[in-house]
Design a protein that fits this description.
Radius of gyration: 21 Å
Structural class: alpha/beta
Number of domains: 1
Oligomer: single chain
CATH topology: TIM Barrel
CATH superfamily: Metal-dependent hydrolases
Distance between the termini: 30 Å
Shape: globular
CATH architecture: Alpha-Beta Barrel
């Protein structure tokens, strides 16, 4: 069959998050030369190929387009941190992700050679596709723009200003934004003002109890105002990567209604918890940005309902297990494996969102923002996630594949689970 292999998945309960429908179908696809292609989707398919055909009966398992992530942090290149590129991509696959846009918060792909090396290592580490979001400036030092065009030729996918060590000037931001439009690379704005960042706790009552100054919410609002200005003055799309505040939801909603080309995302901790979680959970609830007030949490949920917030990201930031003892020097949470379950538990079950809406925010919406069509239809790659909406899992070091166990969901039970994943036609092992 000239290296072609055909597979027929029978009796799939396929969810279409866009059309808000679930159909019992068979999915017939071909794998050839490292690429998969969906050939047919329908009921009672009887393909003519006999040689090299595998038939798999799913017995009515629920499936949907595989997830896409717009914000995660590559593991530290540091022996003190347990997460590796292999466990990073494995954790993403376990969470239902076929592709992840990885930002260089720790590993800095700021040159063509580094991009090429990173992608070669990722190809060896796992099937989950790593899409590098490259640094705005060389070395993230905020002075000289990185060579975007040369990096794009080596596989760079987006430009991010969210990892700079120094605040880039307005001139540099505008120049990078214009380059992003010319090169057709998504532009990701900073989500916080560097000079106002704190140590993972929101400024307010909880910070006072902990005898800490806390991070002023103005950090996010100043960064957002800059992102809105960039999008408005140049009429070029800008993505704001992490919304956590009621005021941010309001400002983005107003900007969208005025026609400003701004998109945004949030992550599960911000619709699941409030700042008081720090008192109950401790250091695993120290995040960047920090957890906010109940009014902010509800505003984030309303933003997901209304479409002001375009998608849900994982914000996967694996830290060493030793970082959970005492104050973290670096804040963040491992997020790949808990995103779907957190959405089920804190959005769908309470009635805030439908299952269709949650899956849309995890799959089609973020992929569309990257210009990727991940729908399960003829001509597209075979990227399919299987889910169980009733299964409950207790999250701890024995049930999670990431080695970064820093998450406010650690030690908690969540309902809903990704039970299987096909990436580019290949069944992933969990």
């Amino acid at each position: 069959m000239n290296g072609e292999h055909y597979t027929l998945l029978k009796n799939v309960r396929l969810i279409d998050p866009e059309e808000k429908r679930t159909d019992g179908v068979d999915i017939y696809y071909c794998k050839k030369g490292g690429q998969s292609t969906v050939l047919q989707v329908g009921k009672g398919l009887k393909p003519t190929e006999k040689e090299g055909l595998s038939v798999i009966n799913t017995h009515g398992a629920i499936a949907c387009p595989a997830f896409t992530d717009l914000r995660c942090a590559l593991p530290y290149q540091d022996s003190a941190v347990e997460e590796t590129l292999y466990t990073f991509l494995l954790s993403a696959s376990v969470g239902g992700y076929a592709r992840v846009l990885a930002s260089p918060f720790r590993y800095l792909p700021d040159s063509p050679a580094r991009c090429e090396s990173l992608l070669k290592n990722a190809d060896k580490a796992g099937d989950c596709r790593l899409l590098p979001a490259v640094a705005l400036t060389k070395g993230c030092e905020g002075s000289v723009l990185a060579p975007f065009e040369a990096m794009r030729e080596k596989g760079a996918f987006a430009i991010t200003a969210d990892c700079e060590r120094q605040e880039p000037s307005g001139k540099l931001l505008l120049a990078a934004l214009e380059e992003s439009e010319r090169l057709k690379m998504p532009f990701i704005a900073p989500c916080r003002e560097k000079s106002l960042q704190g140590n993972g706790v929101n400024k307010g009552a909880v910070a006072q109890k902990l005898r800490e100054e806390g991070e002023d919410p103005a950090s996010e609002l100043l960064a957002l105002s800059k992102a809105l200005m960039l999008a408005h003055t140049r009429n070029i799309p800008v993505h704001f990567p992490l919304v956590t505040l009621k005021e941010s939801v309001r400002l983005i909603g107003e900007a969208k209604r005025a026609g400003v080309p701004i998109t945004c995302a949030t992550a599960p901790p911000y619709f699941s918890f409030t700042e008081s979680e720090l008192i109950f959970t401790g250091e695993n609830a120290r995040l960047s940005p920090p957890l906010r007030r109940e009014a902010d949490r509800m505003a984030v949920i309303e933003g997901l309902q209304s479409g002001v917030i375009d998608c849900i990201c994982s914000d996967h930031t694996p830290l060493p297990s030793s970082g959970t003892k005492g104050k973290k020097q670096i804040t963040g949470a491992s997020g790949f494996e808990t995103v779907f379950a957190a959405g089920m538990t804190h959005l769908v079950i309470p009635g805030h969102l439908s299952l269709y809406r949650l899956l849309y925010l995890l799959s089609l919406a973020p992929a569309d923002l990257l210009g990727i069509d991940c729908r399960i239809k003829p001509g597209n790659p075979m990227d399919l996630a299987f889910i169980n909406t009733e299964s409950e899992m207790f999250y701890n070091r024995h049930s999670m594949r990431t080695r970064g166990l820093n998450t406010p969901f650690y030690g908690k039970a969540l309902r809903g689970r990704v039970t299987g994943l096909y990436i580019n036609g290949v069944r992933q092992q969990s």
